[in-house]
Design a protein that fits this description.
280 residues, alpha+beta, His-Me finger endonuclease fold, 2 domains, three-stranded mixed sheet, two-stranded antiparallel sheet, 9 helices, 7 strands, 14% strand, binds zinc ion
């Protein structure tokens, strides 16, 4: 019995030593590298000289509670719409990332001039040089800065119900050239109108999509579930949400610019606006 216990405890001790000794060994090497590596010290000094703009991919996202809006609006449409308001911020990011790229080239150049691994400010006596270099390289890898050097925007659109579960999603990434191209097209305006039809249509689709189901129901409620033109109630007609100032004339999807109409009044209004636009 006693012998049995002795064997067990010997085994435990052996396992303990097998696990702990390499650890102690590693820590000794690690301490030495941290204290005496020349390249690590040089890298830290170099890092103090370089400050990169901290930017990963820009994300723009939107959630639709209306299946048709989600299907109707592409990621590019949504980006075009946002570029009307966000282009100044986006251009600043582009400039910052361009500067990152230039600085990063210089930084990489200076990295190649660092003292080689394995050069230490004191002798490494009983320590293993190979192990030291391996640890040193890992530390250098951790410290080397890796800034963003390419601009991109990711647009993500979601389709979700009011309770929040997501049914569908789509996303697209745009690079600097693509975004610049869209900015240029968005800025091509004749007064308040966009000269580029594709741009104009994209903006109209997104504007229309801003009337969410949630908004629609609260508008019906506000207007007493009846057409504001002819007064017919929802039991007798299909109600729709109408833009008082039409989107085609620069109207926005805000509560003040929206009203409940029956389908017939809405179509009649649409025809008179089409006539108006054709004759002006
Ligand atoms: Zn009506």
């Amino acid at each position: 019995m006693l012998i049995f216990l002795l064997i067990i405890s010997c085994c435990l001790l052996a396992t303990f030593i097998c696990i702990q000794v390499p650890k102690w060994n590693y820590n000794k090497h690690k301490q030495f590298v941290l204290l005496h590596s020349i390249s690590l010290k040089e890298l830290k000094l170099l890092n103090n000289e370089y400050h990169f703009y901290d930017a990963s991919t820009q994300y723009i996202q939107c959630t639709y509670d209306n299946e048709h809006s989600f299907a109707d609006i592409s990621c590019q449409d949504y980006l075009i719409y946002q570029l009307q308001y966000e282009q100044r911020k986006i251009k600043q990011q582009m400039i910052a990332i361009d500067k990152n790229r230039i600085d990063y080239e210089k930084y990489k150049n200076e990295l190649s001039n660092l003292t080689q691994c394995g050069t230490y400010s004191t002798s490494y006596d009983k320590l293993n040089l190979e192990k030291l270099i391996k640890i040193e390289k890992a530390f250098l890898q951790q410290e080397i800065k890796q800034p963003t050097t390419n601009f991109s925007i990711a647009v993500c659109l979601y389709y979700s119900t009011i309770n929040g579960s997501i049914y569908d999603r789509k996303s697209q990434v745009f690079n600097k050239n693509e975004v610049n191209n869209l900015i240029e097209r968005v800025n091509h305006k004749n007064g308040t109108f966009f000269t580029d039809n594709e741009i104009w249509n994209a903006i109209c689709r997104v504007e229309r999509g801003k009337v969410s189901n949630k908004m629609r129901f609260s508008l019906y409620q506000r207007d007493g579930y009846r057409c504001l033109k002819c007064g017919i109630s929802q039991e007798y007609a299909n109600l729709e949400i109408d833009h008082i100032v039409p989107i085609a004339k620069g109207g926005k999807s805000t509560y003040n610019n929206l009203q409940t109409l029956c389908h017939r009044c809405n179509v009649a209004k649409g025809d008179s606006i089409a006539n108006y636009l054709n004759h002006h």
